[in-house]
Amino acid sequence: MKQQGVICINKPAGWTSHDAVMAVRRRLGIKRVGHTGTLDPMATGVLPVAVGRATRMIEYYEADLKTYRAEMQLGTTTDTLDVTGTVLTQAPFDGVTEEAVRAALRGLCGEIEQIPPRYSAVKVNGRRLYEYARKGQTVEVKPRRAYIEDIYDVEVDLAAGRVAFAVDCAKGTYVRTLCDDAGRALGCGAVMTSLVRTASGPFTLAAAVTPEELSGMPEEDLDAHIVPVEDTLENLGEIAFRDAKWEQYYRNGRAVEETEYQITRAPNVPLWLNPDSLIANTYKVLDENGEFLGTGHIEQETGALRPDKVMAERPE
User: Fold this and answer.
1) Where are the beta strands (DSSP E) in 91-161?
2) SS3 assignment, position 53
3) What tens digit of pLDDT does each residue of 113-135 get?
4) d(Cα 261, Cα 238) in Å, to the nearest integer?
5) What is the model's pTM?
6) Which entry of 19, 40, 153, 157 is annotated as an active-site residue?
7) 20 to 30 Å CA-CA from 283: which of 7, 54, 60, 289?
8) Pick from 214, 168, 171: which is nearest to 49 by CA?
9) By the 8 A CB rule, do 171 and 16 touch?
10) What's the CA dihedral at 246, 247, 248, 252 to 10 degrees?
11) Do residues 311 and 285 make contact, with C-beta atoms less than 8 angstroms apart?
12) CA 80, CA 88: separation in Å to the nearest integer?
């Protein structure tokens, strides 16, 4: 059975992301396991889980867009911004039009600012926001930058006050805050009633396995679901060495001069991502046969390739 890679879990409702990690850990018998992006217990769907040394690559997924299918109920707000919370307000929505709903959602696209929900894991002064909320304490929360690529496939049922939509967004976006913001724009309030993550970077719901399926899966099928980590790093550039001897330098953690490697693919840095992001100067390093050796960055001063995370075994 593979000892490293990424497996896509279809997280059930009521499970925490940590619960899913524990399920993978138990089934594979590997302690070194971590997920690439938290899903709230209420949410379901795609949760990529890195296994073994692939956990070292988790930070490189920051540029991956995530896709969700969400539903919200007009006329209600809660303290958690979703249907699991305590109702704060209820208001009529009979004056809301379908065009107004679509316009409110369109207005949330692009680069926006969001105030994280009171019940979230965002840290303020060293404590999680939900810790303050559970004790009835208030704390100043500054808006955070979020990026919404698109909101589409909008379905509106005005009679019931239900709205469903798909959203492509960057890391750190709170979809329940989107619902709350849309409700505020409409003047009646809104609360998220369901959320399914259908994709995260290269991982899709169609390829995901539930914890129940995972527990009873034969090892040969399980191996097929563990994706080599190098196949998941879509946004990294690629570098190849001009001579095999430089592979040994890299494997030993030594820098390689600019004249001894060639960039075969530049990093893919989305326009919304900070241009100083780690992704902007990180490359997958390949041997002469195209096999993955690890990652590295190019030093601005010298142009040398400096190893970051060496995945290949060191030569004896």
Assistant:
1) 110-114, 123-124, 127-128, 144-157
2) helix
3) 998 787 777 787 777 777 877 87
4) 10
5) 0.92
6) 40
7) 7
8) 214
9) no
10) 110
11) no
12) 10
Burial of 290 (0-12, 13-18, 19+ CB in 10 A): exposed
Which tens digit of pLDDT belongs to each residue from 140-172? 778 889 999 999 999 999 999 999 999 999 998
Q: What domains sit in the chain, N to C, each tagged with a CATH number? A: 5-64+202-231 (3.30.2350.10), 66-197 (3.30.2350.10), 237-310 (2.30.130.10)
Q: Mutual orientation of helices 98-106 and 175-186 as an angle, nearest 10°?
A: 130
SS percent in the chain: helix, strand, coil, step 5: 25, 35, 40
Cα separation of 151 and 155, whole Å? 11
Q: Which amino acid is at 207?
A: A
Instruction: Round to whole Å and give the CA distance between 179 and 77.
Output: 10
Q: What is the DSSP letter of 256?
A: B
- How far is 227 from 216, CA to CA, in rounded Å? 19
Q: Which two tokens stand for residue 157?
A: 């049922």
Q: Is 19 helix (H, G, I), strand (E, B) or coil?
A: helix
Q: How far, CA to CA in Å, does 25 sit from each of 35, 66, 300?
A: 11, 24, 40
Helical (H) or strand (E) element with 215: helix 211-215
**Annotation says 223 is catalytic:** no
26 Cβ contact list (under 8 Å, min separation 6): 215
Q: Which stretches does DSSP call E strand in 58-143?
A: 66-74, 76-78, 87-90, 110-114, 123-124, 127-128
Strand partners, 185: none
